[in-house]
Fold this protein.
Amino acid sequence: MKNYDVIIIGGGAIGSSIAYSLSKRKKRVAIIEKQMIGSGASSAAAGLLGVQAEWDAEDPLFHLAQQSRRLFPKLQEEIRTLSGIDIGYEQKGILRIAHTEQELARIHDIMNWQSACGEVCEAMTMAQVQQIEPAVSSKLYGGVFCRDDGHVLAKDLTKGYAASAAALGCAIYEHTEVTQIIEQQGEVCGVQTTAGMLETKQIILATGASNQTLQQHFEIEAIPVKGEVVCLHSYEPILQVPLFRERFYIAPKRGGHYVIGATMKRGDVTKHVEAASVQHLLNQAFELVPALQQATFKTSWAGLRPDCSLERPLMAQHATTKGLWCAVGHYRNGILLSAITGEYMANQLEEVTNTCNYV
Ligand SMILES: Cc1cc2nc3c(=O)[nH]c(=O)nc-3n(C[C@H](O)[C@H](O)[C@H](O)COP(=O)(O)OP(=O)(O)OC[C@H]3O[C@@H](n4cnc5c(N)ncnc54)[C@H](O)[C@@H]3O)c2cc1C
């Protein structure tokens, strides 16, 4: 029977990043993925590394997110060298836009506490916003330029982690589902999969929004929050940096693509895109950037963000079963947090003290 130091269930950004970190530390790792690498939420994501854009209040996860974002420049080089995959990392900032005076005051307050935490952010009048992005409507109220934020191509990042782990010896089982975790006397000893049994003393659940395996073992529930996205295309450049307004964004991607997202439908586990959602997203986009009305409709998609009943990620060992770990619940920011999650989990498995203060 095949034997690994660590078996990771789930080949999304989280599982693949952990596999990469452990493979760098010379562990014999396997990823077991029931579909294909990156076929869950990780390929639906806009790829924003939005520490400043996403956090409205300071919490321990904010500091972890800061650490994670700092890892991307080096990660881009490592992944390119090991796998040839370009993760599309760009650090041009994110423009947070206000559509009312109250919203402007709110994002200024956020800017103040973030600046005190070392973030570089800058309050901007509408004229200053339009100096950076002339296509933004002058009917808005100004904004904050979040200079340290950036973005990646989420699907390429996920494949990049997995391919880099594979280059270092990690085994990847696609189209293989884990159907049972096998325990003996309070310790894990292997997994039963649709392709047979595999032995290990360490198992990490990185199963995203799926509850099947998680709920059997941990007393938490994964809560899927469906997000629908629209993608437009324009040969004429319209925007340089992502725009963010409350939880809505327009992210310019390579090749003239504009990713517009995303709806938030808690508990909806379907993957189709409703016509009304397309209309809603496009209306918001046109209000913010009227020139997008001349772009071509390219495609739309949906994915399930993995929230969890704890309302924060769980990255820990099971309370009573030795060798059973969990890394789930990264919700809206799993792409951003993937880099630090890999290192954080690898440190925990190796019993190395984490420098990041997240419990
Ligand atoms: C529309 C949308 C936009 C988003 N935008 C951003 C963004 O801009 N920035 C950001 O940081 N985050 C964003 N996110 C969130 C981000 O996508 C998620 O937090 C992240 O992808 C979660 O990764 P994961 O590996 O936990 O889950 P997933 O990518 O869902 O991976 C879990 C994997 O586990 C597999 N699996 C489950 N059970 C089993 C089993 N029993 N056996 C084998 N395999 C199994 C599944 O098939 C799946 O591939 C967005 C999400 C959505 C939906």
